[in-house]
Write a structure and sequence with these properties.
Length: about 210
């Protein structure tokens, strides 16, 4: 009896065997966007840009600076972590302003032929083409690039630095914006305005491993 009791107590002290932990539900598969294109189509786009744009840009820059070699930029890249941070940032700022990002615009630009910008920042790629990203919001069925104003509200870029519209078109635009956001006088000045425009990516000629 004593031996049996001892064996039972030893058995009771053993840790329970671990059962196979249930496997989590598989992640739902994401369907490819309708805008995905084939490799053949992307190759065609790249080659057409080479003939119809890059060569013209190269010739133009050679005429401006005959003694300098110039290779037109063919891409701009950002670290994947930067893009994720950017998406999280603009969503955060839009939510704080009470609006929703409707789209992202990729604007084409050109770096100046000088060493620094007006704000003192270094021009890393003088004379090279560039892209910069602008988030937009929907106002009466139209998308407009925006930033966060000093009052914490969404403001339209075109009203700050865009070309001035004339006549009834300008009045209509101003009316649409007035119905969308309160004027600065209706909210206290909480902080300085915040740009949401992303630039300063890594640009250069085509990598050897791509097209």
């Amino acid at each position: 009896m004593l031996l049996g009791s001892l064996l039972l107590s030893i058995g009771a002290c053993k840790p329970p065997q671990k059962k196979d932990e249930p496997v989590g539900e598989p992640r739902e598969q994401v369907k490819p966007p309708e805008q995905i294109i084939s490799l053949e189509e992307s190759k065609s786009l790249f080659d057409l840009y080479t003939v119809n744009r890059a060569e013209i840009i190269k010739q133009y820059e050679i005429e401006r600076h005959p003694d300098e070699e110039f290779k037109p930029a063919r891409f701009t890249s950002y670290d994947y972590s930067t893009i994720k941070q950017y998406m999280a940032f603009i969503e955060q700022e839009a939510e704080g302003a009470g609006v929703e990002v409707s789209s992202l615009r990729f604007y084409f630009g050109n770096y100046p032929d000088k060493k620094t910008f007006e704000d003192g920042e270094k021009v890393v790629h003088p004379r090279q083409d560039a892209v910069f990203i602008v988030p937009t919001i929907d106002i009466d069925g139209q998308n407009y690039g925006f930033y966060i104003g000093e009052d914490g509200k969404a403001k339209l870029i075109k009203d700050a630095v865009g070309q001035k519209e004339m006549g009834s078109t300008q009045k209509k635009s101003q009316k649409a914006y007035a119905s969308f956001a309160p004027s600065i006088s209706e909210a206290p000045l909480l902080y300085k305005s915040q740009s949401l425009t992303l630039n300063r990516g890594h640009s250069g000629p085509p990598p050897n491993a791509d097209y």
